[in-house]
Structure formats: structure tokens, C-alpha cells
Amino acid sequence: MAAANIQAVFDIATDVAAPWPAPRGAVFSHRSQYNAAEIIKSLAVNIHGPVKRVGITSRDITLPFLTYVFGEARIGGNAAVISTHRLQLPCNGIIPEKSLVYTRLSKIAIHETGHLMGLSHCKSSRCIMNFSVGLDKLDTLSPVLCNECKVRLNAITKR
Amino acid sequence: MNEFEILIVDDEEAMRESLSAWLVREGYRVTTASSGPNALDSLEKHLSQLVLVDMRMPGMDGLELLREIKTAYPEVMVVMITAYGSIESAIKAMKQGASDYLLKPFDPEQLIVLIEKLAAQRALKDENQRLRRCLSEQEDVWMEDLLGQSSAMRAVFQQIEDIAQSNTPVFITGETGTGKELVARAIHLRSKRLFSPFVAINCGAVTETLLESELFGHERGAFTGATQVRRGRIELADTGTLFLDEVGEISPRMQVTLLRVLEKKTFFRLGGSQEIHSDFRLICATHRDISALIESRAFRRDFYFRINVINIDIPPLRDRIEDIPLLALHFLEKFSREMGKNVEGLSPEAFELLTKYDWPGNVRELKNVMERAVVLCKEPTVKKSLLTFLRPERQLPGEGGLEKDLIRLSDVEASHIKHTLGACGGNVSKCAELLNIDRGTLSRKIKKYRIKK
Questions:
Q1: CATH fourth-level superfamily of A2-158
Q2: Which of A31, A88, B207, B354 is most buried, judging by how many CB atoms fall within 10 Å of its CB?
Q3: Contacts A133 to B, Cβ<8 Å
Q4: Facing residue for A66 by CB, picked from B24, B25, B105
Q5: How far, in Å, CA of A157 to CA of A147, rounded?
Q6: Hey, of A42, A62, A66, which one would you mutate to test binding to chain B, going by the most B CBs within 10 A of its CB?
Q7: Is A112 considered catalytic here?
Q8: Within 10 Å of residue B276's Cβ, how many Cβ atoms?
Q9: How is domain B318-399 classified at the CATH fold level?
Q10: Residue B106: which of A66, A120, A131 has the nearest Cβ?
Q11: Across the interface, do A64 and B15 touch by the CB < 8 Å criterion?
Q12: What is the pLDDT of residue B64?
């Protein structure tokens, strides 16, 4: 589903790869969380040409200075990682439906791929590249780029 | 890309890299340094607006770096990043000038909100500085013609400084061309109201009906031609200064209306029913002899007492001859620069001529004379020949030549007034009656010719 949405939004061919092992030393033992930066480094190994790799994990991921992240990617990087861990946590005692979790996952996948394509965060509250903190905010975003981000993306890809 | 620049200082490469990448995604310009000394080197080469400093670093620790940054670059904002265990050091850092601190690990929202808040603060500070620079430039432009070394002008400058901060009404008197509006603006620019408007109106330049509309504004349909609501000068001066120039020209009827506004600070637009409040400081000015106007009932005594709480009397230029060379050179340099000419000074004879002249038009006249001189001057020095149109009013002892035999109309008038006043025993009203002129006019002429009663 993530691959289909990435393909639809960015008009690029996608493929689903075989499972990827979590890198050793990527876990913050005292926090029971995985270091997203280390996972990205591992995913970026042996990438040749204009290929981008997006990893999806059910583990909770974060960065050394943050409490959590839904996903992580560097601008113009080769790899990104997304976690479904917090996308399926119960909210007010209600477990979210699978379809909602998939929608959230797709949105994060599009957002992180946008970074890989060279886009930074967008100020438009409707754009998928808007920085979303919390699931409530994520649920309000449309899984599409705003016109400004489309123009920026067009300029980047033409370079 | 955001113009706000951030320097990250952390000895851990992973931390530097991930925080940097994260902030770049937010659109900020980011540089990194692995130690305190490296950070100081980086700031020396390129000044970031915000520095994120890890508290624990080998060698120079976060607190030491904070002190160094605040000493060398006090305008740079510093945010300390610390672990939960060292909250005491974070508080210490805040006392030493850190803008804020973050306890690791922090929520993504916390970091973004904090940086956005600091960036907004910085933008506000920059805007504030820009406005202050703008105001200071504006002040320079306005104040550059208000020059003087004479004791009389020094007293005026001192008075401006003394009263600027209060809200008391000021009444500026002085002959035409002495710079009454410049003094009014100087008071405004030195007051707490400097960021608010300075609204000036020349009461003598408009008819009474127009003045009423100008001052109070009008509602739509208040009179023929009032097609839309218009805010008056009093309303526009809210939180600022209202300058009524040539206040002596206001009719007694209008004075009554204004008196009510000055007392209550509220008024109605013409044709309006809604009371409008305006908090303004009032400065009035006139070149006329107000006491004579009061005596002739052309000016209301109660209105005069209301506006004349503090009086600043600007001396005429002829009474401060020592300021003439200073002002002449100032205008010469100003016009020379504006016209792209190389006029550097005046010949001693030209200076002498300027100091002998009576300057009935005061500083404004001197300014115009210097502008004319720069336009016509073809040499670096303005010679006396360019100023001969100025007939010296004041004869120095032992001088005269051809002009000595000529009698000017003003001399005849002064002599006649002096003679008649003497015959009336110094009674101005009686003298005015005999001369068949208005008492106010006579008082002005007595002052002009400096005739002792």
C-alpha cells in the first residue's frame, strides 16, 4: 500500500523488496527503541543510481535526542525508515482500524519519500510535507503534495 | 530556505548529524561544531542567530561555551541541551543568559515550537532595530536643521529634553522661520510616543469649515461631498502627538470646541453620534503675539491657559548671531552635497555680511539664501558678491558708505512708532489708537523693532 501511494504521488516506479534485517547496534537498550539514523545508514548501503529505499518496521523508532519519530529520512538521501508502532497505538482506549493504520502508513511513506526526493517541510497545513506531530494532526493531512511542493519537486527533478 | 541560521555544538557525531538533518528538513540553515573552541571559530567566521549547545562536552563544557558566546556575541541566542539528570546546570545556564533549555530526549513538537518561537523573537528584535534605525535616520533628517551653539538655543534644547517624556501640552512661540515645527518634532521623537504618529496641521492654511473637518473627520453623508467616512487629525494622532501650527488663527468658536476635546480627549466626527477617544499629546505653535490677541478678544483666555502649560520661545536668528556661521556652513554643506557641487565654504566678507543682516525670515531665510548661493556658486568658496542682494539691516558703528544716506521704510516706521509711543507715555493701546492700527499689530511691530516701552 505504501509502495502504491508513493508511485501515485511521485510518479516513480516502485517495487517491494525482501525483508531487511535490523542492523546490530541500532537499538537504544535503555529506551527499548531503535535508532532511526542507524537503520537508514544500513538501508542505504549498496544503493546505486537514482534508487531510493524505504524501510518499514513495526518497532518503535527514534533519534538520539527525540522521544519518538514516525519516520526518518534525510533530504536528498537514499533511504528512509517508517515505523508502524505508534500508528496503531490505542487512542482513548480505542484500537484504530487496520484501514486507518494503512492510511497513516501511506501518508508517512509519502512524507519521507518527499524528503528523499529533496523536499523540506511545508508550511501549508493541508500538504503532506507539513510537519505532523501526533496522530490527530497526521489524520487531518491529505496524502497529496500542495501546488507549491509540486512546483519545487518539478524543479528538483529537472536539475 | 529560512534565513534563520542554527549552529549545533555536540561532541557526538550521531547527535550532530541527526539533529542537523532534522533541522534542515524544517528549512533552517544549519552548521555543526564538535567542540566549544570549534564553535567559537565557526561563529567568528559566520555568525549564526541560534546556537544549540550540548551541556556535557569534554574540554570546554556547555556552560563555559555559553559564557564565551554571551561575552563575545551577546545578541546570539543559546539553547542548552541537557540530560534529565542535569536540570540544575540547565537552570544555571538560564541564569547566565541562555534563551532556553531542552531536556533529552524531547518531543519533536517541543523542539520545533521552541525554535519557531526563538526565530520569531529574533525577527521581532531585528524589525525593532530596523525601525529604530529608520526613526533615528528620520530624526537626523528632521533635526539636522535645528542647530545652535548660542546660550539661547542651548536653553531651548535643554527644555526639549526636560519636557519630552511628559504628556503636558507645549506652546511654542517664535517668529516665522525659527523652526517651531522642528522643535515640535524633536519633542515627539524624544518622547515615549515616538513610535506613534506625529500629526501636524497648519490652522492658518485652511478655512474654518475645512479645519473642523480636518481635525474631527466626518461620517459618510455628513455634508455634500462626504461620500465616505474620513478619520480626522485628532483621531489619527491617537497615542502620538498632535501639532497645531499657527494656532493663533483658530476662530474663538473653534477654540471652544477644541477646549472641550482637550479636556475630555473625546470628540465626535462631523455628522457622527459615536464618541471617539483619542490619547494625544498636544503641541501648539504660533508666530503671533497671543497676549495681544487675547486682549483684542480674538483668542480665548481659557483656551490659551489650556494649551500654554509649557512655553518654549525660540529666539529669532538676529538675537543669536553666533549661530549664523554654524547654520550657514551646515546648509552650504547640505546643498552642496545634494546638488553634487564642490562648494566648501564662505569668504570672510561673505560671513561678515551674513552676520550683519537682520534675517526677518530667520533660519528658513538663511537656508534659502544658502541654497541660492550653492546654485549660483562656480568656485569652492561663496564670495560676498553672491550675497549682495542681502541689504544689511544692522549697521556696524563707523560703517555706511552709500547706504548710509538711504532711509529704509522700516527705519521710518520704527522711528515713528518710537516717537508716538513716547508721546503716549508707553501706553500701547493709546498708541495703537493714535496710529489707527490694531493693538496686536502694534505690539508685534514694537517687538520686531525692539522698541522699549
A1: Collagenase (Catalytic Domain) (3.40.390.10)
A2: B354
A3: 107-109, 112
A4: B105
A5: 15
A6: A66
A7: yes
A8: 18
A9: Helicase, Ruva Protein; domain 3 (1.10.8)
A10: A66
A11: yes
A12: 94
Name the stretches of chain B with pLDDT < 70: 1-3, 84-85, 134-144, 392-407, 453
pLDDT at position A61, please? 94
Q: What dotted CATH number matches B409-448?
A: 1.10.10
Contact B21 A74 (CB under 8 A): yes
* CATH 3.40.50.300 domain extents, chain B: 151-315
Residue in B closest to A152 by C-alpha: B1
Which residues of B fall within a CB distance of 8 Å from A63?
Answer: 18-19, 22, 105
**Each residue of B286-314: b (16+ CB within 10 Å) or e?**
bbbbbebbbbeebbbeebbebbbebebeb
What backbone torsions phi and psi does residue B286 show, to the nearest 5 degrees? -155, 155
Contact of B205 with B318, CB cutoff 8 Å: no
CATH 3.40.640.10 fits B5-126, yes or no: no
> Under 8 Å CB-to-CB from B158, ≥6 apart: which residues?
none
pLDDT lower than 50: segments of chain A: none
Is some CB atom of chain A closer than 8 A to the CB atom of B85?
Answer: no
User: Which residues neighbour B33 within 8 Å (Cβ) at sequence distance 6 or greater?
Assistant: B7, B8, B9, B39, B41, B42
DSSP B212-230: HHHHHEE-TTSSTT--S-E
Q: What is the structure's pLDDT at B200?
A: 93
User: Which residues are B172's β-sheet partners?
Assistant: B285, B312
* pLDDT value of position B366: 93
**Is B25 within 8 Å of A120 when comparing Cβ atoms?**
yes
CA distance B85 to chain A (A): 15
* Inter-CA distances, A142 with A14, A50, A132, B106, Å: 21, 27, 12, 27
pLDDT score of B397:
45
Task: Verify whether the Cβ–Cβ distance B24 to A115 is below 8 Å.
Answer: no
Mean residue pLDDT of chain A comes to 90
Kindly provide the ipTM of the predicted complex, given to two decimals. 0.77
Tens digit of pLDDT for each residue in B109-162? 888 889 999 998 888 888 777 777 766 666 666 666 778 888 999 999 999 999
Contact B104, B82 (CB under 8 A): yes
Residue B402 has a pLDDT of 45
> Residue A65: which of B25, B27, B106 has the nearest Cβ?
B106
User: What is the pLDDT, as a whole number, of residue B408?
Assistant: 75
The pLDDT, as a whole number, for residue B450 is: 82
Across chain A, how many H-helices and E-strands are there?
Answer: 5, 6
Contact A63 B109 (CB under 8 A): no
Return the exposure string of B174-188: e unless at least 16 CB atoms fall within 10 Å of the residue's CB, then b.
Answer: bbebbbbbbbbbbbb
CA dist B195 and B200 (Å) reads 15
Q: What pLDDT does residue A157 have?
A: 84
B180 closest CA partner among B235, B247, B93:
B247
